[in-house]
């Protein structure tokens, strides 16, 4: 009887990864992380408190511990610093809604992957529509707080002439937190957020809730078919939106260039193929992005600089963009 030459374990591990992620999501939904964050807990009393089966919860806790989210000592489970920072709602860096957002994308891509690979289905409209969902908007905001927002705002505040900027445009601004942070840093600055119609409606509600309605407005605008006012802005920001224009990057940047006043700045924050993300994560993101109807999610610095130069920009500046080296912030000035 023949035996295989290779170890099947790597493939079997891939099979089980979906169970691990589902366990994390359900740990969040059922309040497991919140309970264990308050004090170390044993499975049986915690199961009674949460209305769960003790043996099943024991296995869930063991799985979470095996993945570094909990620790176990004499049958008691405690939360780890990693889970405390990202999986407990009271943390300023809670990522619960972002994980739900990514799970939603994963599920609707997985459900039709064969059809998408054949070109028999399309998810782009579904993707566009999803950005106006309140929960999804909170998810994108949570992800931005991992460092992208902080690093992007820091780079902009350090640009020559920032204190003299008076009007900015936040292209595809979604939750609007980038603009709001800049408005707080520059009391004379006003912001216009441009996004898809339904997104702009929800963004208007968020702007009012955050108390910025007197200095910030949201407008319906799809730059795939529309344009921006000419010579109008001191600053244009595009965060995690360039991937939607990779097949028309130079013409898109031309619209941005024309909308800026002389000496104005364009700032892009996006995923970088040279980032420190694991190769498997990059490949997965690119697959999801392409199956959803977009050309690519990662744009390299050299590629972007070349396109910016063709559009008439110069004086480039770069900075980091987020914990885990997931992105790149680049500023370019209109000559």
Produce a short descriptive summary.
The chain is α/β, with parallel strands linked by helices. It has 15 helices and ten strands. A hairpin with a 2-residue loop joins strand 2 and strand 3.
Q: Would you identify the regions where 5 or more consecutive residues have pLDDT less than 50? A: none
- Determine the mean pLDDT: 92
> What percent of residues are in strands?
15-25%
Kindly report how far apart the N and C termini lie: 73 Å
Proportion of residues in helical segments = 40-55%
Shape: globular
Number of helices: 15
Global structural class:
alpha/beta
SSE topology string: HHEHHEEHHHHHHEHEHEEHEHHEE
Characterize the structure shown.
- This protein has 335 residues and is α/β, with parallel strands linked by helices.
- The protein has 15 helices and ten strands.
- It has helices at residues 9-29, 32-38, 43-50, 54-66, 81-86, 96-111, 113-118, 124-130, 134-144, 148-157, 177-185, 197-209, 249-259, 279-291, 301-310; strands at residues 41-42, 70-73, 76-79, 167-171, 190-195, 216-220, 233-239, 260-271, 313-320, 327-334.
- The chain has a seven-stranded mixed β-sheet, sandwiched between helices.
- Helix 3 crosses helix 4 (54-66) and helix 10 packs parallel to helix 11 (177-185).
- It is globular and about 70 Å long.
């Amino acid at each position: 009887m023949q035996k295989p030459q290779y170890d099947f374990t790597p493939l079997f591990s891939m099979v089980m990864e979906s169970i691990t992620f589902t366990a994390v999501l359900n740990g969040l939904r059922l309040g497991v992380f919140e309970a264990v964050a308050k004090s170390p807990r044993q499975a049986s009393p915690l199961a009674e408190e949460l209305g769960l089966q003790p043996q099943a919860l024991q296995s869930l806790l063991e799985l979470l511990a095996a993945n570094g989210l909990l620790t176990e000592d004499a049958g008691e489970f405690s939360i780890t610093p990693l889970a405390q920072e990202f999986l407990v709602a009271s943390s300023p860096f809670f990522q619960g809604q972002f994980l739900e957002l990514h799970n939603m994308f994963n599920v609707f891509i997985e459900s039709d992957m064969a059809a998408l690979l054949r070109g028999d289905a399309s998810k782009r409209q579904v993707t566009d529509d999803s950005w106006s969902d309140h929960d999804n908007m909170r998810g994108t905001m949570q992800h931005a707080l991992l460092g992208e927002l902080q690093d992007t705002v820091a780079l902009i505040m350090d640009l020559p002439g920032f204190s003299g900027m008076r009007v900015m445009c936040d292209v595809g601004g979604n939750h609007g937190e980038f603009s709001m942070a800049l408005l707080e840093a520059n009391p004379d600055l006003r912001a216009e957020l441009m996004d898809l119609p339904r997104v702009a409606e929800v963004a208007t509600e968020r702007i009012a809730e955050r108390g910025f309605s007197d200095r910030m407005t949201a407008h319906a605008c799809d730059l795939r078919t529309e344009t921006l006012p000419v010579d109008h802005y001191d600053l244009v920001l595009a965060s995690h939106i360039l991937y939607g224009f990779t097949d028309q990057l130079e013409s898109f940047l031309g619209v941005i260039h024309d909308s800026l006043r002389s000496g104005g700045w364009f700032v892009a924050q996006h995923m970088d193929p040279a980032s420190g993300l694991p190769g498997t994560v990059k490949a997965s993101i690119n697959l999801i992005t392409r199956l959803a109807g977009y050309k690519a999610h990662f744009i390299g610095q050299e590629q972007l600089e070349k396109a910016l130069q063709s559009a008439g920009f110069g004086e480039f500046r770069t900075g980091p963009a987020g914990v885990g080296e997931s992105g790149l912030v680049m500023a370019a000035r209109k000559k």
